[in-house]
Structures are given as structure tokens and as C-alpha cells.
Fold Iron-sulfur protein.
Amino acid sequence: MARVYSRGSLSADEIFATGMRDQWHAVCPSDWVKRGEIRKLRRLNEDWVLYRQSDGTVRMLADRCPHRGAPLSHGMHLGDRIACKYHGVQVGGDGTVLAVPGMPGCNLEGKQLVRSLPVQEVGGAILAWFGIDTEAEPAALTVPGPLADEGVSEFLCYTEWEAPWRFAVENLLDPMHGAFLHHESHSMFGGAQTARFRIRETDQGFFFEKTDQRGVNFDWVEFRREGVDWVDLEIPYPATAGPGGPFGIAGMATPIDAGTTAIFFWRYRRVTGWERDVWRFLYRTTLEERHWAVLEQDRVMLEGMAPDADQAENLYQHDLGVIRLRRMYRAQAEEQAKLLADA
């Protein structure tokens, strides 16, 4: 029987609260993991350490020494490995015990005893595969289109919210809130405050979009499943934002634990040549502060909601995208809980 991800079974409710397994999740900005340093993180309700090997490759391990369970995050960075500070046990990037200085040749050496996650760096962020079966190959990861397009210029925005991860994703699947919560922003003041919506299926996921307005406000969002779950949306820019195409956001939300979420927004624009330079200058000098103000409105609203706010709702037609998302994740959580229980 293959080894499994969890140190014990997880119920469907626990998976729904702390994040889907068997997929890639954004973990942290790449520049958080510097050469010669060890970074401790909590993701999907478990503790991890990240470090760069001498060749720059990022490694991600469970924060638990296989000897006595001491935190590897308190250890020493030794180029291609971490040495636990408690008794000096050295663990390599794939989780194999490479040396036990206190007793060379003991039976711990050569065994893969620490959980190691596959990682990739994409668009200035580190993504990791949180698999159920530790011996299975990770699913293919498709880089989100805006991050792979040389004609697109982007900035990564990272923050953390004290709100469940699903609230953050559902907020993005709710375009109508832009016309109310963000009505006084520099880009979402226009358009009607009434609308009809539809779901439009795609090979990778679905669009949730207004049927009677386009290119005026936050009028559509696309949810995509390509190894990693992410959303794409577009917001029109006023002329004062300089030359170039519409303003886009590629977003991901990764559970830290049941009540805290790591938020990744790549703010992008399709611009080349001198227009790219103007866009990047305007963003850093003027637009970035305005975008943070809009994001702060979302944070305050979601952090102010009770953790069980979704248990006492009265939904209507504008919430079709949210309903679709919840049903999908609930079914996935139940399937993964069964896999863990059987294993």
C-alpha cells in the first residue's frame, strides 16, 4: 500500500476547511526563500520548511526531524541538506536521511523518512504539489496563460487574510460585488448595479459572466483547473492608467489553516515596448497604491464575516458561480476523504 499524505485520516469537512489535496498550490513568493536560509511556513494546516540548495533548486520538507520530531526549521542550512539542531541528523531535499553524526552507519541513514513535496517556480512564486499518495507522480502543471505570455507584464501581489480560503475564492467568483463594495474605486465605478449572469463551460473550467454588460466593470471571471486552481478576470482601465490593454488579475488562494489564507494576485497588462515601460512606471508610482486600497476593502469584508457565514445564507441568481464552486469542492473533498480512509 502506498504511503499517504496525512499523518492520519482527514474527514471531508477537514479537507474542505484546510484545502484540496492532489493538486498544486501556490506556497509563497520566490524571494521569501533565499540562499543559505531556511523558511518555515504553514500551508494546508501543516508545517513545512523551504530552502534553496547550492544550485538554487528549492526544496520543501515537512518540518519534522525523523529522529525525535524536532522542527527542522530550527536547524542549519548545509548547502544541499538541513541538519537538525537537536541531534545533528542531516536530511536531504528528497527527505532522505543522509547522515547521523551521533551514530554513523545507524539504520536511519539512507532511508526516505521525511515528507518532501515537488515544487516549481512560476511567475515569481513557489508552487508545491500536495499529493495524497506520496509515491505517485504529480499532475502536470500548466502555467497560467498571463504568466507564460511574453507580451504580458505582471506584478505579483501577496498578502494573508484571516478568513477561510473558500471565502477568498468565492469573492472572486462574485463579480457583482465590484459594483457595490468597490464602487468608489478608480476602475469599478461604472456600469449598472443590476445584472443577469450565466455559467459558460470550458475545457478547463467555466466562465461566470454578466449577460448584459461587458468591459465596463468587473463583468466576468474565469475559473480554471490546470493542475493548479486559479481565476482570471479583467477590469477596464481609465485613460489615466496609460497606454495598453485592459487590466487583468490572475488569482490563487492557498489555505494556511482553516481560518487563514495566503492570497496571490498577479496584476497584469498586455503591453510591449515603450508602453510596457510606461505601465510599469505608472503601476509603481500611482496604481499600486490604488489596487491595494481595493484589495483592503475585500480583506475587511471577508475578515468581518463569521467563519460559518456560509451556513446561514439566502442565495439568488448572482450566486450561481459560488454554488458551482462549492459543489465541486465538496465532491472532491468527499472523494479524497474516502481515499485516505481506504489507505
User: Anything to note?
Assistant: The CA atoms of residues 170 and 244 lie 29 Å apart.
